[in-house]
Specification:
single chain; alpha/beta; seven-stranded mixed beta sheet; two-stranded antiparallel ribbon; 11 helices; 37% helix
């Protein structure tokens, strides 16, 4: 009687190749990178070790874990949610479906806020609206340990995660408040800088977003109303009464929105209004000074 063929031995390299090919057939552009990141996360090793240890056989429990992660990525669930983390400004933030995945372009919002408040760097009071994972507020707080930062969000689930990130990253100078934009903080509170990464996608454009975004990231943090500027208008309109004289408002916006947002700033009396471009040369952050 002919002996049965031995079962295939899955190695790290074989799993990476299989996952890469599978992802490519499903239209995932970063197939190889995603496969390596999933394997590195599941095995708690670096991407370099994934390559070096390509011939290492996988144990059954490792293989089962990897197959489960590959199945989730097949459905276009973001890699950041699979890994439960995303790097931002050199720090690792925990992320899940409660919050948007921090984007590299949002680092420009931090740079703008810090750059335009150098004159109060030792005593900066910052309000971060729509804080989500807390990446902007926590980063600013860590960059300026003597600052007083308040972070707000309409989602209690998002604030829970932001608090967890603040504790993990040692941002003890951040306070969190639940509520609708400025209503979350006392009426008499005034700030040197207000930052915001509000939802700025037009409602009609939501169905056209990548599956990774529209099917998994919170709609509350994406949908900016009919033209994408519903919350932007509210923030620009209310900000002057919450800023000290000479205080700065800085907001992340969508591609092509800069001219309209600059007009909103100027109509509300902001001076020295600027639009900063991200690495893709898109005008991504608009900021201005309260006269």
């Amino acid at each position: 009687m002919q002996a049965e063929a031995a079962p295939k031995v899955w190695t790290i390299g074989a799993l990476v190749k299989w996952a890469t090919d599978d992802f490519r057939t499903r239209g995932i552009e970063s197939a190889r990178l995603d496969a390596e990141l999933i394997v590195a996360h599941a095995l708690r090793i670096t991407r370099t070790q994934v390559i070096i240890d390509a011939m290492r056989p996988l144990a059954e429990e490792e293989l089962a874990m990897l197959r489960a992660l590959v199945k989730r990525r097949r459905a276009h669930e973001p890699i950041a949610y699979l890994r439960g983390e995303r790097e931002f400004y050199g720090r690792v933030f925990r992320v899940d479906k409660r919050v948007l995945v921090p984007r590299p372009e949002t680092e420009l919002l931090v740079d703008t806020a810090l750059g335009r408040t150098r004159h109060v760097s030792m005593s900066m009071r910052q309000l971060d609206l729509c804080t989500g994972s807390g990446c902007v507020a926590i980063t600013a707080a860590r960059q300026r340990p003597t600052a007083q930062v308040t972070a707000t969000d309409l989602s209690p689930d998002a604030l829970d995660l932001a608090r967890e990130n603040a504790a993990r990253l040692g941002a003890y100078n951040v306070a969190f408040a639940l509520g609708d934009l400025f209503a979350a903080v006392p009426e008499g509170a005034r700030f040197d800088v207000v930052t915001a990464n509000p939802p700025y996608i037009a409602s009609a454009e939501i169905p056209t977003l990548q599956v990774d975004v529209r099917a998994f990231e919170p709609l509350l943090a994406l949908d900016g109303g009919e033209d994408g500027l519903a919350l932007v208008r509210r923030i620009v309109d209310e900000a002057p009464t919450r800023l000290v004289p000479g205080g700065v408002l800085a907001m992340e916006i969508g591609a092509g929105q800069a001219p309209d947002v600059i007009a909103l700033f100027e109509a509300r009396g902001f001076t020295d209004v600027r639009a900063e471009r991200d690495l893709a040369r898109i005008e991504r952050v608009v900021s201005g000074v309260r006269a």
